[in-house]
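REQUEST FORM: STRUCTURE PREDICTION
Request ID: SP-0412
Submitted by: Lab K.M.
Chain count: 1
Length (residues): 428
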Amino acid sequence: MSSNPLQSIGRWSDDPQRRYAGLPSICSAHPVVIETVIRALRDHELPILIEATCNQVNQDGGYTGMTPTDFRDFVYDIAARVGVPAGRIVLGGDHLGPNPWKHLSAPEALDKARAMVEAYAAAGFAKLHLDCSMGCAGEPEALKDAEVAERASALAQWAEAALPDTASVRPVYVIGTEVPVPGGALAAHHKIEVTSPDAAEATLSTHQAAFARRGLEEAFGRVIAIVVQPGVEFGDDSVSAYDPIAAKKLRTLTDRHENIVFEAHSTDYQSGAALAGLVRDKFSILKVGPALTFGLREGLYGLDLIAEELAPTARKETLRAAMERIMLAAPDNWRKYYDGSQQEQVIKRHFSYSDRIRYYWQTPDARQAVAELHEVLGGRNIPFPLLSQYVGQIARHFDGHARIDADAVLRASVEEVLDVYIRASMKG
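STATUS: Completed
RESULT:
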């Protein structure tokens, strides 16, 4: 059995043979995002880490309609199409636990969580984040550390037992949670509290003890990271930037546990300097998702405007108008997240950092609207001045002389975000 490529991440920063001290963790199921990421990282030494969440992908299909096996095959098919072997891909499962079923009693929810983690392990996911922090029906909203650790260790035991005999690597584990509702939850003037070192130490010690009670000492040796809150978050139009001084005390934890790094969630929209600071301070796993589809949406809406310039009568409806219609017809994915006046809600639906429009891109109507946009642009060479006018942030990807088509614009829109993470992961 091969060594898990993430097993030694705690020592990457001290390894002179490595150019990178951290890596981005890609949290998206959009095919254009995944293809762009795989293309962009194929010539780097980094593992290509692509993760699915418990709500997105589970044994019941999640909101994507994919089981862990389906998601694995979906990603591997894209990798094969662009000439990248499956061995370069590390698949991860995020927030694996009872969260999708917390409306049920604890035994019922944990039975569902067991089936989910077994499905992830059996499908070859090599990075598993165990998160049992949430209470189930009749329980407090947040559980005590000991109970969280006990439930997480049970999930680990079930995952270990579900590993197929043909597994090429054993999974590494991530524990803990210090994150808000996925997708961003920074309200105006809301102060983000950095995790205390004592709280992080307690998470580690209670999990270690719970694993040991189940005879899982070897599996606990594959715990590579703890999820903490470094003080970063984003809201509809605001970002709480990383402050290394505020996180200085928390950083000392990794001095005492040299094989452990921090996993930072909601790093979307941080500056390159802030991301580099996170990696330098051992927040080595940088989770990013909404920022990638935000960049993709910028590219799509830029192409939408370009298509109106090049062929103003070719479509009955612009992509922007189609997406507004689609979101109004099925508001569950945005309504409870976006408040304000009607006009403020319009702006948030399309342009909020939380990017809840991402839940709609793979619906049949949205796919049709995007297909119509591609049909209008077809094989057209997009004039550089039009690109500069409507998607100017990616102009550097084209030198003003290269042929520019719609697919290249979309890839560049995602790469513009990803490049910041790749540079931030580099040493020095």
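NOTES: Residues 290-310 form the longest helix (21 residues).
Reviewed by: T.R.
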